[in-house]
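[audit] Reproducing an earlier prediction to check determinism. Same input, same settings, fresh worker. If the tokens differ from the archived copy the diff job will pick it up downstream; this log only records the rerun itself.
[audit] input (178 residues):
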Amino acid sequence: MALPNLATCSRTQTLDYFDNGWTLTEVLFSGLRGEEAFYRPPYHHLRHPMIFYYGHPPALYINKLRVAGLIAEPLNPYFERLFETGVDEMRWDDMSKNEMLWPSIQEVHAYRQQVYAIVRRVIETHPGLASNHPPITQNDPLWALFMGFEHERIHLETSSVLIRELPLNRVQRPAEWP
């Protein structure tokens, strides 16, 4: 799906693009079999467990929407700190998070659902997406929304590579795949 034209995008186009990226993430993660697949660090220890990549995009949405002034309050300050930053492959001390007790899959899924509703509400109500809106530029608060869309898509690639590195008994074909 092509990125909406930021000079002319409608609410519907913006929502469709958001829904597409969000759904792709949900489908990709439905390919993980069992809790161990979410919590097992990669064999190379250069990245976090998959639970991080399930919670990271929604935390970025909340953090960026807050900085842009599109929402006023954090949703879950603990999650927004925990899932805020990935790893720098050149900093070996970044991996201490892998030793921690991560939130449950159910908690992260519930957080994702809440974030989805918040992002959807911004798309459906923000006046900057009204008909004949001016182009959305880097100086526009809505830029944070589109940054979130693309950030989620980047992590589809990261996550798919990490899923391929899991043992075969920890993955399954998502029901939605052809």
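[audit] rerun output stored. Observation attached for the diff report: The first helix runs from residue 11 to 29.
[audit] end
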